Amino acid sequence: MIFPARKPQVASEKIRALNLPQPVTVEENGVGLPCVVITSDQRLAVEEIIDIWRIDDEWWREPLLRRYFLVVLEGGALRTLFQDLLSGQWYEQRY
Asked: Which end of the chain is more exposed for a tag (fewer CB within 10 A), N or C?
């Protein structure tokens, strides 16, 4: 059998990121904890913060400083939010 020659793949064609964090608007309470998440069509109160953790990584290259929150939103939706501690921007991380 003869197989046709395949075009070599470039690195960008082989690997792509999945579930990239999406920017989200978050209102914080007086101590910096998320209390409201605003989407394009809803304003949802944070009913409970289940867990908080922090990631400080890659300080030798491009620092990555994030504070994560696992929250329960109004209506019962479970979400993972994080704040980029370098820029102050909030994101939602879906898995």
From this structure: N
